Amino acid sequence: MNSSDAYDALKRTAQLLRVDVFHSDPTRDREIVAGLQDTKVRIVADRRTAISRGGQTAIVTLFCQLEMMGIEVQLDVPDLDLVAPQPPLRAQRLAEGLLDYAEDLIPGGSSVGSQRPDLIFVMGNAKAAGAHVRLSWTDDTALVVPASQSVPSPSGNKLPFGAIAAAVAGAAEGIRAAIPVIAEHLDVAPCGDQGWRNPGTRSVKISLAHLFKGLDPKLGDVDAISGGAIMNACLYSLLRIPDLAGRLRVIEPERLDMSNLNRYALTRRSNVGDRKIDALSGYSTNRFEIVGEDRRLDRETVAELEPFAAKVLVGVDDIPSRWIAQEHCYDKRLIVGSTSHNFVLVSEHEIGTACAGCVHTKDDDTAGPIPTIAFVSLLAGMLQAARLLATPSPRGLGIDAWPLGLDGRRGIRAYTPTPARPCPVGCGASRRADRLTG
Predict the structure, then answer these.
(1) CB 227 within 8 A of CB 267
(2) Number of Cβ atoms within 10 Å of the Cβ of 245
(3) Judgement on whether residues 169 and 238 belong to the same structural domain of the protein
(4) What is the arrangement of strands in the sheet containing 204-207, beginning at the earlier edge strand?
(5) Share of the chain above pLDDT 90, in %
(6) CATH number at residue 37
(7) What is the pLDDT of residues 278-305, one digit of tens each?
């Protein structure tokens, strides 16, 4: 592997940073990649945290998210046996599995650097000289604060959502630490947008309990349209649910390539060239089966894919495909996960409520590759997984989130979607709204 391979793996992250942060020329994206790979962080955890299921989820998730951004991660964690599987890790021990993953992800990446880190993360009440960011969590809450603050000891070994949310907020701090390193490579002034600056100065407190009331790990049959980044993240979260049971059909025709490595939470470099459905089906368990459908959802194929399961996940980037899914699943429970730059939108649709067309009213006219970054996709998939497990919302549900603004009042916001007029799907809710205002 050479530097071109690393660029291929990270070019969509570079594109996002170029567009949203540096406003630089596209010809300088390789310098952005070099800055990412020159950024060094350290994760410190004590035995008490690293021996627990929730602690291992938090450590693995933060580590993998940072690695997917090309950042070098130095580990100061005990090498303990895994309490439960931690995909995409293959080894049965924590540190060994993390280092093996790092060697099988971004070409030229490393996790054994000895230089002084740009940022130090501490898990729970672990101690480390010069630490910047402290993470703690429960089953359904996340705390990410300056390391000088004390936090309750991490707890929660039944559900992964708090630990994953803490890692999302931690990964956002990681990219903030990379910004001045990248600026030095570009020979420009550091970013002026406060959202991208000053890691280790924010207090993030996330409560997620209201998003998965009535959680049931027995899913039955589920269909998933797309095997991309959001579905990787959704499955990453689901596979950490104790007693998860059911069958998931993934509808996806594409193969994995290097550009997927910056955000596909269950994918490794050794998977490049494989069908996406094969990479995902390899994570099937005795109680939760993942099967692949090697085709694309469009107007020509939709009839062949029917009947759809009672629960349908949509993670496809193409907005008209979301409309087709809604048209043919009007009587199903449809949960759509989507992202744009630093924004997450997850919406849930039941019969009679505002539909996916009401939420996504216009096609995206963006041409070419879409700028992406790991922790944005992860948050979208995690929220989608939480809603899949939860009791349905009879009025429908929308959740929007800003992964770089999780310290604000509207970092994660739930609301009831309203019918659109006109709705590109022409759903019943929008037609009723037309009659009421006509």
Answers:
(1) no
(2) 15
(3) no
(4) 72-76, 40-44, 119-123, 133-137, 141-146, 204-207
(5) 90
(6) 3.40.50
(7) 999 999 999 999 999 999 999 999 999 9
